[in-house]
Amino acid sequence: MHSSATRVVLTLVSIFSVTVFAMEGSVIMDYNTRLVRTKQCIIFACSEHDLYFNVLALMAANQFVQPVHMNSSYDLVSILTRENYARTSVIVDTTCEGAPKLLKEASANRYFNKTYQWLLWGVEANITDLLPIDLDYVGPNAQLTYVNKTSDAYLLWDVHSKGRHLKSPLELHLIAKLSTELHKLVVINEIFDLQSIKYRSQFNGLTLRGASVIDQEDILTNQQIEAILSRPTKDAGVAAFIKYHYELLSLLRDLFNFTVNFRNSRGWAGRLGNTTFRLGLLGIIKRNEADIAASGAFNRINRFAEFDTIHQSWKFETAFLFRFTPDLDTRGKSGNFLAPFSRQVWLFTVATLIGINSIWLLLDYLSKRWHSQAMQCIEERIFNIRIRRNLSAHQAITNSHSNWTERILHTFGAVCQQGMEPIPRDMPSRSIVLTVFLFSVVMYNYYTSSVVGGLLSSSDLGPATVDEITNSPLKVSFEDIGYYKVLFKESSNPTVTRLISKKLSASRGPNEMGVYGHIEDAIPYLKRGGFAFHCEVVDAYPIIAELFDANEICDLREVSGLMEVEIMNWIVHKNSQYTELFKTAMCKAREVGLVERLLRQRQMKKPECQSLYTVYPVTISGVSSAFLTLLSGVLIALFALCLEIASVKWQMRRWNRFFRPTRVHKGIAIQDQA
Ligand SMILES: *[C@@H]1O[C@H](CO)[C@@H](O)[C@H](O)[C@H]1NC(C)=O
Ligand SMILES: *[C@@H]1O[C@H](CO)[C@@H](O)[C@H](O)[C@H]1NC(C)=O
Ligand SMILES: *[C@@H]1O[C@H](CO)[C@@H](O)[C@H](O)[C@H]1NC(C)=O
Ligand SMILES: *[C@@H]1O[C@H](CO)[C@@H](O)[C@H](O)[C@H]1NC(C)=O
Ligand SMILES: *[C@@H]1O[C@H](CO)[C@@H](O)[C@H](O)[C@H]1NC(C)=O
Ligand SMILES: *[C@@H]1O[C@H](CO)[C@@H](O)[C@H](O)[C@H]1NC(C)=O
């Protein structure tokens, strides 16, 4: 049944055209089912005969086939879509008239990539004519197979180049031979090997176009750029991650044996006016003017659609660095006398003392009453001198049962560990005094050790957020690198706006640092304190480790938050022909630990605080509460004095009025009172 249908169509086709077989079916069949093993096949041809028989044969081999007649009008972009059914091969009969146009379009749309397996039927065609130099997207990721024919066999060649835009020649490797008579396939090289990094990693000294960002005047030549980037030390206007990515680039350069001709830009991003023209490194890569960049780029959601990422490892971390000085204390803990105990403890202590005082007064009152009763009995019965002496002693005790204000003072003195004079003699008072002393020793020890511990521990951090920095007395400067200028110009974040208006707008004196500067110049200010410098922390750590002493290192604080901490992307042009190659190489470099080693070299750890503790002197704001207490005591005393004077005067006036009638009596009376 199948064969009868075939026969009918065959006769129909032979009526319309008398062309011989242009494409040999067995080659296409073997290519699809034995070499690339795809499941979908798109055939571009210009003879119905070819189309018909190949489609039938492929469908019989369980393939999903889409035939396209090249004389018809077709839209390549809608044929090669993302929604292709499976791994796809594209077969092109290059003897057809429309073939050069098709290949040109495929190159312009970057279809010679890992998504498709292309078969170029090139019998009687010359490969250098098929893929001329202006078809520039035939790179190391191309999966192109070219077929030509000798007298007795078809030859399948793997074709790629290291970059046609760089005038790199086409490289051909024989994949397989198919004898014309016996139709026997002899595989010479595994096609997937030929298409892999194994056969495509020798660039033979090809010069790629590189890009970098150095924010310095007059950096134009490749030699200048390489000299700056390969220097291991910090350079002005060069971010730490630039040098790191340059080292990664050097890894690739050694691996693939290429050289790079760099061009410089002053910044990463930005636009010209309100046009869409992109400036800086991103613009260069976006316009495909560079194959590789010695720089990372920030993650922005739109950038994933515009660039390919080949590697991510550098953690971009910037922070305000400053030296902590006690006047930066934001929480006011170091000198607060109430801090060691919580409010409940204080209230409970006061309540306890009041309770103890009342019990003591009660005891006093009871014993006084008991004594006076006892005295009466004794006076009635015994008149012995010895006992009288004893009695007078008892009288003293009774007198020492002084009034309640003195009792309160006594308790207060005991709690403040200032002793107690006179020492009470009776048992109940003594037991109370004993417990009060015990209580005060315990509490006092907790209190002092907590204060001492607080002063010794360097738990004081000072300002911890950008806003706290903005509100602190710190002077602020930034590293002289492009991204800050972009941030201040473009950010509408209220934190940044506040920072600009409070810290950056005021004019600066001659012995202050400018808004932008270099780390080396900032170090003396950092050492002195009262100054914060914002930069990439890994740039600052080595120089800080070198120039700061142990105490200064312990005082070093960092506050991030102005720019996000993020992992940077190493980007190339979207759908670059080098994406897969470089990505694979970087994966391997990470696996064998090269990336880790570079990171350890380049991302210096924060210098560690070596001294056990630092004592921060208590500042005037810390002890102010003690002075305030003293002052209020003095004021209360003065007030009490005034009150006493007033009350005495008032009493005297009343007395005077009472004895007004005789002046003589008044005089006597005053003397009397005195
Ligand atoms: C398609 O174009 C080729 C070359 O111009 C021509 O030989 C062939 O007849 C055309 N086929 C059809 C169906 O128009
Ligand atoms: C291949 O190119 C097409 C068209 O440019 C694109 O959609 C596809 O994502 C590319 N595939 C890969 C693996 O880059
Ligand atoms: C292909 O054409 C070029 C010139 O266009 C020529 O130099 C080369 O020898 C030709 N190769 C073959 C195999 O015919
Ligand atoms: C087939 O292509 C290869 C590679 O370009 C070339 O060396 C060879 O001469 C070609 N053979 C014929 C018969 O054109
Ligand atoms: C790199 O390429 C140059 C130029 O082709 C070549 O002489 C050199 O041997 C290659 N080096 C390596 C290590 O392959
Ligand atoms: C920005 O674009 C608008 C219209 O698109 C134009 O009127 C305006 O002059 C442009 N501004 C600048 C600075 O180019």
Order of neighbouring strands in the sheet with most strands: 2-1-3-4-5-6-7-8
How many domain units? 5
CATH overall fold name of the largest domain: Rossmann fold
- How many beta-strand segments? 19
Runs in which pLDDT lies below 50 for 5 or more consecutive residues are: 10-19, 666-670
Largest sheet: 8 strands, mixed
Characterization of the model:
- InterPro entries: Insect_Ionotropic_Sensory_Rcpt, IR75A_N.
- Residues 1-22 form the signal peptide.
- It holds the Pfam family IR75A_N.
- This protein has 674 residues and is α/β, with parallel strands linked by helices.
- The protein has five domains: 2-200, Response regulator (Rossmann fold, 3-Layer(aba) Sandwich); 206-316, D-Maltodextrin-Binding Protein, domain 2 (3-Layer(aba) Sandwich), CATH 3.40.190; 318-334 and 460-564, Periplasmic binding protein-like II (D-Maltodextrin-Binding Protein, domain 2); 343-446, no CATH class; 621-673.
- The chain contains 26 helices and 19 strands.
- An eight-stranded mixed sheet has the order 2-1-3-4-5-6-7-8, with helices on one face. A five-stranded mixed sheet has the order 16-15-17-14-18. It has a three-stranded parallel sheet with strand order 10-9-11, with helices on both faces.
- A hairpin with an 8-residue loop joins strand 6 (153-161) and strand 7 (170-179).
- The longest helix is centred in the middle third of the chain and has 39 residues, at 343-381.
- Residues 10-19 and 666-670 have low confidence and may be disordered.
- Bound molecules: 2-acetamido-2-deoxy-beta-D-glucopyranose (6 copies).
